[in-house]
Amino acid sequence: MGLLKPATNKMAYAKVGLYGAAGSGKTRTATEIAIGLHKAIGSTKPVVAFDTEPAFSFVKPLFDDAGIELLVADESRALADLMLFMDEAEQVSDIAIIDSITHVWRDAQESFLDRLNESRRRNGRKPLLSLEFQHWRPIKAAWAEFTDRFLSSKMHVIVCGRAGNIYEYQDKDDGTGKKELISTGTRMATEKELGYEPSLLIEMVARREANKTVNVAVIQKDRADKLNGHEIDKPNYNKLRGHFDFLNIGGQHFESMDQRDSKEMFPDADESGWDSEKQDRAIASEEIIELMKKHAPSMSVEDKQKRAEWMEQFFQTRSWTKVENMHSTMLKQGLKQLRDFLEPEQHQQEAA
Fold first, then answer.
1. Crossing angle (nearest 10°) for helices 301-315 and 328-342
2. Is the pTM here over 0.85, yes or no?
3. Which of 54, 133, 297, 331 has minimal Cβ neighbours within 10 Å of its Cβ?
4. For the chain, which domains are there?
């Protein structure tokens, strides 16, 4: 089956991202967009909100004035509940608001850490205080399910998030050659890939004037290229309409991008390989340390020196941490040489 076909506009639903600092107008702008969009498409369904603040009590009068029913899920910040919300929302509504996605991202991290520590306690291990590098893959995999739903759901979705700083190392200008960590911009405080997904991405900024605050929408990305770079005071649907007019509202919307994959390209992949390597490494390391303790068991300076010299001779390091992290093949080879050196008679008997 061929992959190529004539291109069509398959963006039938708005996918909007709003982020900014406290008081910048994220919730209000999401409400203004939802009300205007509701009228523009002639929807008769309620607007729904996954409200983690909760904040929609304060904007409910705006929906009431517009004659639009507002349904909220305002008792959870859990990613699992957000996925259930997306399922339910698609059945009863044309427009969904998620505010704030930052809380949900934190829940995903904290929930994984809690579950991990439950397992560690059952196995008599100390709990971790924070996530480590190897933990991010399953978290991001779970999060990717939401991202796919956000993009492919047959409803208009507005996601609000708090602003987070983007940091980079730059050379200091004092001639020392040292680097300093500086803030070079802002992004939505959530899983970093999500910021790339909305077709309309808006940074909300609070501009302070004499006796008031003006909410300003800074258009960071408009895939329709109607609003890019614009700064819009007191944003609402009509002021942002250039983007929404481009959409193929009422037409075909693309399906999930996760329906196909490339598993057939990796027929020999074995998910147990890494676990097997870790187990082999742990066993070999334990045999090495126990063999050295057998022949130099005490904590005397002399025995410590012997163990350090053996490590250097057979593993080219005096760091036990480095030994533990060597590949199991190297550990087994070094273990054999160490055993031949410390217990030559036993080696000769086994050979015979």
1. 120
2. no
3. 133
4. 15-170+180-257 (3.40.50), 273-343 (no CATH)
